[in-house]
Amino acid sequence: MKIRFIITGKTGELYLGEGISIYEKRLKHYIHFEHMVIDLPKNLKSASPEETRSNEAILIMRHLQPDDHVILLDEKGSHYSSEEFAAFLQKLMNTGIRNLVFVSGGPFGFNPVVMERANFTLSLSRMTFTHQMVRLIFTEQLYRAMTILRNEKYHHDERREEKGKIS
């Protein structure tokens, strides 16, 4: 399976870009992963939220293929623990999906056209993060899911340690 992460607008903070790059390099050991930045027109800064969502929708839809399985990162989506997210990914992998596309939109959310195209909507937290931070958090969680699926040590699970202790 190939996983693509589509983001709207550039990552402005250098430290976030560096963090994302670290996890992208780590992910290459597990899956084919790429992130795609959709550059937004400069005139969107003065546009209304609805105009912004509409313009973002046009740009996002251009990058989606008919056979893509699309998951939107949206605050109103389903919530998973890291282990549940890993199991969710494993289930998708087992179904034979070839192209899994995660999309992080802009600060005003998604246009209904994009929402209708989505196969699923996922929330990273009940807390609010900047769209810049979401990129790093998602990339790290994807890496964490891969290590969980391979039962590697990156994801520290105290319950596993407790099972191994002798009383």
Question: Which features characterize this protein?
Answer:
167 residues; alpha/beta; Alpha/beta knot; five-stranded parallel β-sheet; 6 helices; globular
How would you portray this structure in words?
- By secondary structure, the chain is an alpha/beta fold.
- It has one domain (2-155): Alpha/beta knot.
- It is 44% helix and 21% strand.
- It contains 6 helices and 5 strands, in the order βαβαβαβαβαα.
- It has helices at 14-27, 49-62, 82-94, 112-117, 131-149, 158-164; strands at residues 2-8, 32-38, 69-79, 99-104, 120-123.
- It has a 5-stranded parallel beta sheet.
- Strand 1 (2-8), helix 1 and strand 2 form a beta-alpha-beta unit.
- Helix 3 (82-94) crosses helix 5 (131-149).
- The longest helix has 19 residues, at 131-149.
- The model has no long low-confidence stretch (mean pLDDT 90).
CATH architecture: 3-Layer(aba) Sandwich
Largest sheet: 5 strands, parallel
Topology, number of strands: 5
Strand order of the largest sheet: 2-1-4-3-5
What is the 3D shape? globular
Radius of gyration: 17 Å
Query: Tell me, what is the CATH class?
Result: Alpha Beta
* Annotated CATH topology: Alpha/beta knot
Q: End-to-end span in angstroms?
A: 43 Å
List the secondary-structure elements in sequence, H or E.
Answer: EHEHEHEHEHH
Strand content: 15-25%
The CATH superfamily name is SPOUT methyltransferase, trefoil knot domain
Helix content: 40-55%
Low-confidence stretches: none
Overall pLDDT: 90
Count of separate structural domains = 1
Backbone structural class:
alpha/beta
Counting DSSP H or I runs of 4 or more residues, the number of helices is 6
